[in-house]
From TrEMBL:
One of its GO terms (cellular component) is nucleus. Residues 172-260 are annotated as: Disordered. The lineage of its organism: Eukaryota, Metazoa, Ecdysozoa, Arthropoda, Hexapoda. PROSITE patterns: DNAJ_2 (PS50076). Residues 242-254 have a biased composition (Basic residues). SUPFAM superfamilies: Chaperone J-domain. Pfam families: DnaJ. Residues 172-218 have a biased composition (Basic and acidic residues). InterPro entries: DnaJ_domain, DNAJC8, J_dom_sf. It comes from the Eukaryota. It comes from Orchesella cincta. This is DnaJ subfamily C member 8. PANTHER family: DNAJ HOMOLOG SUBFAMILY C MEMBER 8, DNAJ HOMOLOG SUBFAMILY C MEMBER 8/LIPOPOLYSACCHARIDE SPECIFIC RESPONSE-7-RELATED. Signal peptide: none annotated. Gene3D superfamilies: DnaJ domain (1.10.287.110).
Amino acid sequence: MSAHSSSGSGVEKDGLFQEFYTEVKQIEKRDSVLTPKQQIERLLRPGSTYFNLNPFEVLQVEPDTPLDAIRTKYKRLSILVHPDKNQDDKDRAQTAFEAVSKAWKTLENDDTRAKCLDVVEEAKAKIDANIVEKKKKLKKDGKKNKIEEDDPEKYKHALYVMTMKLFADMERKRRNQEDRDMEERKRKREEELDAEEKAKLEKEWQKNYEESREDRVSSWKKFQTGAGPSKGPEGPQGPVPKKPKKIKTFRPPKHKAESR
């Protein structure tokens, strides 16, 4: 009786899950044919900078969707939000179109798509680990071993939130790395400019040194031949030596008697 009851309960759960799954797919199908205006609103809704980090979310496809199906969805969306098709809202349409194009470029590349799939798998692993920890704690506390993630809808929501968080973390790391790379490039450029300035000064000094070589050689030759300082004017007996200049010495002022 117990086994039969358990089996019935399992069938009932499977039925409920299938019902939920069908409903979700109907919602996705409805959303996939949103009007151009609705798609633009979806892609530019508050928090879109955060939501649009997930290319699967942008293109409204499941992570395990084949690439050909993703390409088809991309083409449909790009036509819907293309600026030429939305002349009354061209600027916002352009922004939405760029988001769709970026998502497709991310997923059409094998490497970047693999990274995105890794994010989804990591999110699943984290959610499943959280579920195990929650159930362990409930069991330890002697409480019912049931949590909200047992509900497929709640599980999907938790997975959605975790996936978004991980995509945001990945983007933050990318920006931090980009900032570090920019600082490194800036530092190297400053070093290059300093080296160029030093080389320029060295070259200028060398040029001035070479240009003054002739004067230095000429002075040295005169010194070697004994050429001294210039002599005075010629007199009857030869050159008249110049009178030595008187050296002024310090003379203290004369002492004056005080007048009474």
